[in-house]
Amino acid sequence: MKMSSKARYGLYVAVELAKRYSDTDVVSVALLAQCTGITEKYLEQIIAMMKRADIVLSNRGASGGYKLARAPQDISVGEILRVLEDNLQIVDCIHKDCANGCNCVSRNLWTKLNENINSYLDTISLQQLVEDKL
Amino acid sequence: MKMSSKARYGLYVAVELAKRYSDTDVVSVALLAQCTGITEKYLEQIIAMMKRADIVLSNRGASGGYKLARAPQDISVGEILRVLEDNLQIVDCIHKDCANGCNCVSRNLWTKLNENINSYLDTISLQQLVEDKL
DNA sequence: ATAAATCATAGTAAATTAGTAGGAATTAAA
DNA sequence: TTTAATTCCTACTAATTTACTATGATTTAT
């Protein structure tokens, strides 16, 4: 029940990008790696997932880099974490079959718990996080 | 961010014990293993944790077994899962130090998320779960 | 042209989780 | 009082997942 480092790191990266959102230019992986302490290669993979999910956008080639695809107030923490954390699903049986079948009482619990987590994380924007206003 | 099978299984076991709570006698691991589909040896370990946490109590020796230490309406799902799932902590840095230090904005998020999860799970009793009244 | 960057993907090491195994201690019942 | 059924204790191993490394192709500003 731990958040993976991929998800934690992804959020750190998003926070750094949010701080720089007013800048017109993009931020390179090298710089992001430096200020977050994540290795470049690992960070590349993480930000690639965020790009595929349209959370960030990129410029390729020399002096290229990444920036947020939308304003920090329009990106929720839930959106980011779902991309990096297997849709934030607490157990597999919510969307797959399990031995207990569909009438398993626990299944309803997991479903509600998931809704709870997701709806909470969806109320928090990157902007709020950067301003430390939770 | 998956719930471990230990926690899932522990909850199944607790549900089975809750169904049988009105019986005066205890239930053996062998029987619990049979009706949950968990192997006896693994189940033994899981229920041992629940015993140490005073969620279940046991009779040793022949015709021994386990039963809930309290009525199903007095045991919350949160209580059970915390015992089996490293206190339900989403990230380590909530109670340990991390590279980012104490002024890390994400840390507050994890703390709030944890509170959210725990307070939800604490509102649900085993009784509710058995009656499928979430 | 060149250098600085993203992009794609395969591989490996570390850590965690899940499950096995063996046997000691206890106790109800024959 | 022996026996069989059971909990209790702890060490080990296999499987899976996570975290990270490595290589190199592609793109593009200068």
Give the topology.
2 copies of one chain form a homodimer.
Chain A: H1 5-19, H2 29-36, H3 40-52, E1 56-59, E2 65-68, H4 77-84, H5 105-122, H6 126-130
Antiparallel strand pairs in A: 1-2
Helix pairs in contact in A: 1-2, 1-3, 1-4
The first copy, chain A, binds a DNA duplex (30 and 30 nucleotides) through residues 2, 4-6, 28-30, 39, 41-42, 44-45, 47-48, 51, 58-66.
CATH class of the domain at 5-87 and 125-131 in chain A: Mainly Alpha
| CATH homologous superfamily title of the domain at 5-87 and 125-131 in chain A | Winged helix-like DNA-binding domain superfamily/Winged helix DNA-binding domain
Largest sheet of chain A: 2 strands, antiparallel
Q: What is the succession of H and E elements of chain A?
A: HHHEEHHH
Helix content of chain A: 40-55%
CATH architecture of the domain at 5-87 and 125-131 in chain A: Orthogonal Bundle
Count all strands of chain A and give the number.
2
Oligomer: homodimer
Low-confidence stretches of chain A: none
Proportion of residues in β-strands of chain A: 5-15%
Structural class of chain A: mainly alpha
Number of helices in the DSSP assignment of chain A: 6
Within the CATH hierarchy, at the fold level, what is the topology of the domain at 5-87 and 125-131 in chain A? Answer: Arc Repressor Mutant, subunit A
User: How does the overall form of chain A come out from the CA principal axes?
Assistant: elongated
Q: What is the radius of gyration of chain A?
A: 17 Å
Cross-sheet strand order for the largest sheet of chain A: 1-2
Overall mean pLDDT of chain A: 93
